[in-house]
Amino acid sequence: MSMAVVGMIAGMALAFAGYFGGFGAFLLVAALGAVGVAVGRFLEGDWELGDFFRHRDERRR
Fold it and tell me: pTM (2 decimals)?
């Protein structure tokens, strides 16, 4: 599935949440989508947990 299709589906989900549930539902769907993207990146190996806990000095090396 291309990234354009994934983006379209995410946009449609946010639109439905905003239309039927109001702004609070829109924010909830957006936040849970961001969490899902982060978990997916961790599971695919694109991100490592240690990247977020290292000091700035260690990242430059």
Answer: 0.64
